[in-house]
Amino acid sequence: MTDRPAMTPQLTRTRVMAILRSADASGLPAVARALVAGGVTCLEITLTTEGALDALAAVRAELGPEVAVGAGTVVTTAEARDALAAGAEFLVAPVVDTDVVRAAARSGIPCYPGAWTPTEVSTAWRAGAAAVKLFPASTGGPAHLRQLLAPLPDVPLVAVGGVDIARARDYVDAGAVAVGIGSPLLGGVDQDPTRESLDALTGRARTVLQAVRPGASAEEAGL
């Protein structure tokens, strides 16, 4: 196995990865600023977004080293190379492609491949994943994550796919090291980035961070 890169520090610290997916990338810089204002500093920009790599480079340059910006929906080694060339600080995939995982590891960049079965989780981990994305997490819920960790306790799992703010804490309590949240967090703000909608996004960012904070209760998080 190639040396395994460490998990993204901003992800281990906050336990939240915001997933930025849109028809086009024009509104994403404003969305990124609003998320960071709320304390979410690990941002995934998916390659299914038109202009994703240009947006990734622009957001990373604007927000600086305190914010980690990575590429999502990376399914080929060519996409991995393009994302790394654009400055992606981590790669996220919906599937386990060991070539993509190893390409990231060779570059010293963490990769979070998507897996759902024990075999897929183990394959991703042995290939050099920094952590494994349980995807789609909502299909089996926190119980499925807990069952996976029983025989694979050393594999860090990030719950992604159908995770909303109200249930984020449930996945952390089940053993997830972090959660990835897209549309329930963004709430369509990328299509209508008004001051009001961006302020609401900042509020949701604060809420989810409070929800997954170690020791936080649902009442403390306002859920």
Secondary structure elements and pairings:
Layout: H1 9-14, E1 16-20, H2 28-37, E2 42-46, H3 52-63, E3 68-72, H4 77-85, E4 91-92, H5 98-106, E5 111-112, E6 114-115, H6 118-127, E7 132-134, H7 137-149, E8 157-160, H8 168-173, E9 178-181, H9 183-186, H10 195-212, H11 218-221
Parallel strand pairs: 1-2, 1-9, 2-3, 4-5, 6-7, 7-8, 8-9
Describe this structure in words.
The protein has eleven helices and nine strands. The chain is of the alpha/beta class. It has one domain (9-221): TIM Barrel (Alpha-Beta Barrel). Helix 2 packs across helix 10 and helix 4 runs parallel beside helix 5 (98-106). The longest helix is centred in the last third of the chain and has 18 residues, at 195-212.
- Write down the Rg: 16 Å
CATH topology assignment: TIM Barrel
Determine the structural class based on helices, strands and strand pairing.
alpha/beta
Chain oligomer state: single chain
Largest sheet: 7 strands, parallel
- How far from one another are the termini? 42 Å
Strand tally = 9
Residue-averaged pLDDT: 94
Q: How many separate structural domains?
A: 1
